[in-house]
Design brief:
CATH topology: Immunoglobulin-like
Distance between the termini: 18 Å
CATH superfamily: Macroglobulin (MG2) domain
CATH architecture: Sandwich
Number of helices: 0
Number of domains: 1
Number of strands: 8
Order of helices and strands: EEEEEEEE
Low-confidence stretches: none
Mean pLDDT: 91
């Protein structure tokens, strides 16, 4: 998925226990984001709770940050067991 530099992107996190049901983690999930040049732009920022097991973090993609493929990582624990989700987005500049 592509997003234009200067816009705000909502990163959504869903946490499910081993039964497959939505479950709140021990602490709100932490989100880190690296830009295309490998610079960490968001460092372990707690996400906001929307509902049981559902969280989000809104991030504004600064105009001066590197364009290209960005990597994000969400970390949490449920009952002390780690949960990790990684993904990517493409940041572009349009005229």
């Amino acid at each position: 998925m592509s997003f234009e530099a200067g816009t705000t992107v909502r990163f959504k996190v869903e946490a499910k226990g081993f039964t497959g049901e939505y479950e709140d983690p021990d602490e709100p999930p932490l989100i880190s984001i690296w830009d295309a040049s490998g610079v960490k732009r968001v460092d372990s920022t707690p996400s906001a709770k929307d509902a049981t097991g559902r969280y989000h973090l809104d991030v504004t993609l600064d105009e001066n940050w590197t364009r290209g493929l960005w990597i994000y990582e969400c970390r949490a624990t449920i009952a002390g067991k780690p949960l990790v989700k990684r993904g990517s987005i493409k940041v572009v500049k349009t005229q």
